[in-house]
Specification:
This protein is mostly helical. Among the domains are: 13-43; 55-94. It is 53% helix and 0% strand. The mean pLDDT is 76.
């Protein structure tokens, strides 16, 4: 058996630690910022993505300012309302005929606990 004492490492002084980690941290942050800013696929919104998407009414009109005619808007709204009305009529006719429902998997019922 030897009488060797376990060695305890001395703590590194704070100033020395800052002298080592500060330049390293600044370098890492700078490298990440450079990659982020120079990479076109870094997630920044491209100018083309920021432009408004042309709708059907803006394409149909010849107005160079992109304004939409109120009459065209009303025609489109009326067409959409007619489409919704026909779909609603189909649903109502299905409901009036009755629906056949078959339960294939029923979870077990839990009765509420009685209050004491």
């Amino acid at each position: 058996m030897s009488n060797a004492k376990p060695t305890v490492s001395e703590p590194v002084p704070t100033k020395q630690r800052r002298a080592v980690y500060a330049p390293l941290a600044i370098t890492v942050v700078g490298a990440c910022a450079a990659v982020f800013l120079l990479n076109p696929a870094s997630g920044l919104i491209a100018a083309a993505n920021a432009q408004p998407v042309p709708t059907r009414t803006t394409i149909e009109t010849d107005d160079p300012s992109g304004r939409v005619s109120a009459a065209e808007q009303r025609k489109e709204i009326i067409a959409q309302l007619r489409s919704l009305n026909s779909r609603m009529e189909k649903i109502e006719s299905m409901m009036s005929r009755g629906l056949s429902v078959k339960v294939t998997d029923m979870p077990p019922m839990r009765l509420p606990k009685e209050a004491k």
